[in-house]
Predict the structure of Transcription termination factor FttA.
Amino acid sequence: MPIEDVLLDLKHKIEKNLPAGVTITDVEFEGPQLVLYTEEPRKFADDGNIIRNLAKELRTRIAMRPDPRVLATPEDSISIIEEVVPKESVISSYYFDPDSGEVIIEAEKPGLVIGKHGATLREITKQIGWIPKVVRTPPIKSRTVKNIREFMRNNLKERKEILKTVGRKIHRECTSKDQWVRVTALGGCKEVGRSCFLLSTPESRILIDCGVNVGSDENMTPYLYVPEVFPLNQIDAVIVTHAHLDHQGLVPLLFKYGYEGPVYCTPPTRDLMVLLQLDYIDVAAKEGKKIPYESGMVAKTLKHTIPLDYEEVTDIAPDIKLTFHNAGHILGSAISHFHIGDGLHNVVFTGDYKYEKTRLFDPAVNKFPRVETVISEATYGNANAFQPALKDAEKHLQMVVKNTIERGGIAVIPAFAVGRSQEVMIVLEESIRKGLIPEVPVYLDGMIWEATAIHATHPEYLNNDLRKLIFQKGQNPFLSECFKPVDSHEARQKIIQNPQPCVILATSGMMNGGPVMEYFKAFAEDPRNTLVFVGYQADGTIGRRIQKGWKEIPMTGKNGSTEMLKMNMEVQVVDGFSGHSDRRQLMEYVKRMQPRPERVFTEHGDEKACVDLASSVYKKLKIETRALTNLETVRLL
Amino acid sequence: MPIEDVLLDLKHKIEKNLPAGVTITDVEFEGPQLVLYTEEPRKFADDGNIIRNLAKELRTRIAMRPDPRVLATPEDSISIIEEVVPKESVISSYYFDPDSGEVIIEAEKPGLVIGKHGATLREITKQIGWIPKVVRTPPIKSRTVKNIREFMRNNLKERKEILKTVGRKIHRECTSKDQWVRVTALGGCKEVGRSCFLLSTPESRILIDCGVNVGSDENMTPYLYVPEVFPLNQIDAVIVTHAHLDHQGLVPLLFKYGYEGPVYCTPPTRDLMVLLQLDYIDVAAKEGKKIPYESGMVAKTLKHTIPLDYEEVTDIAPDIKLTFHNAGHILGSAISHFHIGDGLHNVVFTGDYKYEKTRLFDPAVNKFPRVETVISEATYGNANAFQPALKDAEKHLQMVVKNTIERGGIAVIPAFAVGRSQEVMIVLEESIRKGLIPEVPVYLDGMIWEATAIHATHPEYLNNDLRKLIFQKGQNPFLSECFKPVDSHEARQKIIQNPQPCVILATSGMMNGGPVMEYFKAFAEDPRNTLVFVGYQADGTIGRRIQKGWKEIPMTGKNGSTEMLKMNMEVQVVDGFSGHSDRRQLMEYVKRMQPRPERVFTEHGDEKACVDLASSVYKKLKIETRALTNLETVRLL
């Protein structure tokens, strides 16, 4: 059936299901959802159940778009909204898009604009006709969030066209009589870096992640040139499980080589992704490396990104529904559940996950309506890869920082911008608040502050305890006064030239560049100071050398000459802050999965880790399993 | 390097290696070989070593093409050839192709035209300039062979263009830095029928077999629509391991859907392939089934077919060399050995094979210069799938026929046209010659006689004993007077209406149509007659029903009504004539393979057979192994 007929058919169905007197003028697909055009938005707003019932009946997501002719003027609308919405919500901006009939309201407390079960939103529509969409005013100013929102506002027309195209493609007719499901491993198998998988059926092709291995020139890129994925315009959708570069660093490259389809990820992943992609090409340029794509491709990616919240079942292809679930790894990280066909097969890509409650996140979800195949990460899959408990790691950190401060020293913590930094920040904030460590400034340098701002913008993606603290008690730990962003060369020099007891969190996490190096150079020779590692240090990095006990570190000086830096500062390795499940958690995750899966494939770990984990899953849990190899295709059904 | 530069480079190299005074005018690729153009064919013919040494030096196959201006006239040439060549060779025709400078000589005894180590051929060139190519005059008239030869002669120009294109594609430059080898299963895994595999590297894609499952509408076709193979113009070469329809029946479909490249197979496979393809679409049309392609596509396939003899190492892609070896299954059946890269990986596709000497063929070859991966058939892979020894099968057949004849009866043997028929013929001929069964006519009906004619045209592809019998003793068993082809409806009616003790071999092999049904109807009610099964009877066929013991067989009468046929004739099942290795032979084939392979994948058998064989190969031979699944891709390197 041609798509126009599908739409006509849907329109008839909807009209049959509408209450008497409520009319629509048209229907259209807009990305994964169906939108209804109406001259009577107020009637729809009158009864919150109309849309809900339609969505249930048609088993799809539905939104309503008012006719521009029935809308109040923006001026009138603003004064009405400010009457309807409680002042405490603190609205910071409005953006009216007559084309979609949406008004985007930025508020400090979005919940108050939404009202109970959306009652306030409906009231707004009833009075002004416009459909309000609410976003949070970032509690910490974020350049990234601001730029993304502006960019999206400036490209609404193009965006609408993209969504229309995507929507019509998703809802095309299924044509094949065959039924099969395959997964092709394109990167990240028996290795870490360049994660990339293709999920395919006779109808559809879905790419899951498209990472870059920044540590390798030879194996930097997934095998994107194989016929299963190339030409890229045959791909239906790209899924990004989380924002780390080894999972999404080359998504813009797909657009450079002809991909034109949607990118699905959670809203925080979208924001972090833009931040990390721009930083990636920026760093590559500064290091004189080949830049795989220009910032224009980052923008193009953003234009094509469709954010999906956790637990939102979404059609992404004629025969595939995607649902994201919390993965507990970093902000917005998602376990991706694919429901294929009408009950044909269910496959879960875990992406990176943490099966333990951490300071920031709930443990990864492992309860699904159905699941036959699991493709699981295996970073700590080695038989003996146990990590200390988080509580112990935290105590260790507290002790190290306390000792350093008390002897008048400075604790320098190299950290990745996204993930462990925020975890460590929460621990430090609580320790200071509770008096467990002295009240000293915690400096945040590099992208850490910006990444933290993005965390603060998406509190819904943090765990229960943190959300309670923020929403109910009004205590946002990220806003604590102990945190001091370092936002200029001068600010950094001030800290260096007038050293006082403090904690410094700075990038990069493995000391292969970034502001952390300046602090290190300044503070390495004083034995009162401490260098605290909270993350994994790869071979070949300076961090690794220091861990090995090097006492003299060669540094490139200002004029290019090599100077030897004397290491007198204390070195402490605090294990246990990993965002990955350790061996025990990996096994528990599978063991406690509901329902029990039929087979588990392992990936994202060195060869031994992947094989060890697979072998144990088979031996201990009696589940069919295998470590995947790049470039192989497995048949799931 | 552009291909023109490659050729120029080759020309310089050749000129440097030529003896003083011998010159060439040009070089060009022609399929997998390099051809030299010269005005001095006589000088090349003078010294047989010139071409041989060049081929060794350049590690490629080389042929020489004389300039048309230096050739004798056809008339003069014929009289000179007839002076040079012994009369006993019995030349039946000449075809002069001035474009290639070749003269095709058809002779009853090609060996006498060739001379020792090609001495007579060289003498011919020395005297007339033309390059002689010798083919055998079919000892039994074969419509197929005649038509193919005529067709090829009539399309020499187009053929030359095809070979040039193929040759230039084979010798293109390798561009990828990656090194990997993959095999994708497209059909024939955990099933029999529609065999099809894709062998791929970063440089090349080779399709091995493209069969049709004639017994199934649903699973008739391999998975050709997947992106690894489609669009088909990206495939470098198609290999046909043998002529049965489940291995080659859909090769013409590839051309219908855009394939334009070469098809490699042995010369007998080519001839049998044309016969069986034309019969396949003919039968389908008669049965009112959908015809997958027209005869024009059979012709197109033939135009693109490049025959290769056993043991001939041939470049088929920039990084792949193919060598066929005897598989012992049917005439021309080949084990395909692929050497990939410069010593990178070696993979053997067994196709169907018999690892035992039979009346017609030597046992399948399992000695290779190198081999890492084997993809083996598993038709009789079941743990208990043992077949009686051939000797016992032959004795059983002799006894059955003897008893039938001696009681004045007729032995009706349903048989496939290609394979078992000729095996049974040889046994019957010898039995009659040696007086083990009475001297009665052996009628051959259906395509059996035509297929036998193709066997007689290619005696080089029969085993040592048969070749000796034919070439040294001048006894071609296929020419025995006991064999009586039935070539018309009238001839068949004569046999039926005046029944005399005799043997009748007729198609189809499973009694689902064909002339065998007319004999069956005529002779089923007389208990003196015997129905002798020598091949497998699939479920749902009349043959299978009779084997199960049905005593009344429903038959469609002339006016479409169903008549019940009373089964009074004796039924005998003679096991052991299979062209497939039985379980013991499959295991022995792998066990005695030299060198020992690193891994074995199984295919071409029902699921249990494939899994059983794989499991035993692992347990008993300690070789990594797995039963392949359709649509999966395995990484070999």
